[in-house]
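Hi R.,

Here's the chain you asked about this morning:
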Amino acid sequence: MSDPVTGAPYRADHVGSLLRPDSVKAARKAHFENKTMSAEELATIEDAAIIDVIKMQEAVGLKAVTDGEFRRKFWHYDFMGLLTGFELVTREEGVQFHGVKIPPVYPTITGKLDFPADHPMIEHYKFVASKTKVQPKISIPGPSCCHFRVAPDDITPPEYKDLDVLFADLASTYAKAVQAFYDAGCRYLQMDDIFFAYLCDPKHREDKKKLGQDPDWLIDRYAWMMNEAIKDRPADMKIGMHLCRGNFVSTYAAEGAYDLAADAIFNKTGIDIYFMEYDSERAGSLEPLRLLPKGSKRVMPGFITTKTPELESLDDLKKKFDEASKYCDLDQLGIAPQCGFSSTEEGNKVTMDDQRRKLELVVKTAEAIWGGVDK
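And here is the predicted structure, written out as tokens:
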């Protein structure tokens, strides 16, 4: 059953990012690139678009809504770059995805890490909360992002060469963030910690080994960081975690089943709700779900893709849940798309109408299998 205090978890949900409307794309270009629009004018346009997208989410029947990440360029770097001790720098080459490179922005750690009291995303959350009739949710990058995505040479404080020191400071920084969101009224916080899945990919594992880092040790320490960050949260706050293998203009950056990380994510992180990519063979089998402990934890298998416009069949989705129920209790499952629709401001190769139909299918699937979104 749903929690009587927070509402979450729901049977139907989504990861967070949504396609940016043309008004937002044009305004952000005018402000950040052309320098012809003020921050106040940009915020006004973003506000209007966010109100519209909240109404869309409510209209399709979702009980948890986000701002679509309309105020961000990246799903993770905007949050990270505004932490104390972080700085984003632009270089010539972007990170390689499958057949394409993302914009050449790199996070660097330049000083002692901390969560600032005036982090803008606290206000971003409050805006959504003030405009919705259902539960507001915000998604932020999980603590592992602040290590995985930063090259060793870009970590300049000498004490952070010791990863135990770095991870301890990241954990305390995120614990402070969790409390700050709670104090702002947030009762449903999602942390996108996709690099657990990356560390199941042979190529990414080898890359970490070349840096002198044991990928299995990293999986364990990433789980420790997450648990440290959220373990003292109040009882009426639910924490979700999204795992995928990259999402940029409908491409990906990793592949490999969850097996190597499943025990850590299910049994060592303390997470309540898991959004897991399951829309392609790259994600492997559903067998790792057998490690989900019985109880109140919930997995939202991402059988519905955000990368292509074709709409999945409800009958096929039901069959996939029949398969998933062989490994864990159907009552501990829900449905969500495999990833966001726009992990970066560029967005995936789908239309606004495609996006709406996918979200409607998420709700329709929950109603068909469990009898409702909040059952």
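One quick note: The radius of gyration is 19 Å.

Cheers,
M.
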